[in-house]
Amino acid sequence: MPNIQQYNFTYNNIHNTIRNTAKAIAERGYEPDYLLAIGGGGLIPARIMRSYINRPILIVSLSRYSDETGTAPASQPIKLQWLETDIDLTGKKVLVIDEVDDERTTLEFTLQHLFESHPGAEFSAFVVHNKKKEKKGKLPEQLKHFFVGEEIEDYWINYAWDAENIDMFGK
Ligand code: G4P
Ligand code: MG
């Protein structure tokens, strides 16, 4: 019997979920000026989204760990790299992208800091998967739109990009 407490999301699953969301985003009439990936998990989803919403990709990178060995969890995410850009984001619409909304800690932290560092920009967010559960973090009130690719149960997700042997993934 398959273990139903986990999801295996293949590249094709993820690509199709993002395609469907891009369609829903277009139908809502939302047209971002920039995509912004939250690294590392949001990098591949942002690049796939660009195939449907062809806008430049900005990047921030966060760590949940406070030491270099990656074993001591930090009480809140740490900015490894923040948004430094020559572009003036005043009045621009930015779609922030991550792979999963789990406890919402990363999303709350990132969005709050983006609103602080770029007060003139309009931020929306897209996550490929949202786990249906009680969240620790909150979405900021100023967030314009929140797009979810797929609402899922609170099970562990295996993403194709985490596979050590991609040919055996999900088999
Ligand atoms: P959230 O705030 O984005 O909801 O995530 P949270 O901090 O609660 O989760 C901590 C880390 O665990 C995040 O990675 C998140 O992507 C990852 N995570 C949560 N649930 C799953 C899951 O079901 N499967 C996988 N593969 N990862 C999960 P991170 O610290 O942002 O690391 P990175 O991969 O983005 O570098
Ligand atoms: Mg992440």
TrEMBL record:
Pfam families registered for this protein in UniProt: Pribosyltran
Database matches in PANTHER family: HYPOXANTHINE PHOSPHORIBOSYLTRANSFERASE, HYPOXANTHINE-GUANINE PHOSPHORIBOSYLTRANSFERASE
GO molecular function, one term: glycosyltransferase activity
Stretch forming the signal peptide: none
Domain Phosphoribosyltransferase, first and last residues per copy: 12-161
Lineage: Eukaryota, Metazoa, Spiralia, Lophotrochozoa, Annelida
Keywords associated with the record: Glycosyltransferase, Transferase
The name this protein goes by in its record: Phosphoribosyltransferase domain-containing protein
